[in-house]
Fold:
Amino acid sequence: MNRILDIAYWVVGLIASVGALYFFVKFLQSEGTEGNKSWLWYAIGLAVVACVCALLYFLRHVNKEEEIHIT
Structure:
């Protein structure tokens, strides 16, 4: 179950990162009118989602040491 949740964090984080990049580029290519600021807000929101996914992934792996068996 833990491995599936880790994969879900990776997938959602990567999709959010690509989406944030897409919307930011779309904002940069816009004409600069007031209505196109929504692309920037979408990009910021998706970047926050990507950061939260990365934070949750790394917080789940704190203080987990692998046991080394010497035989």
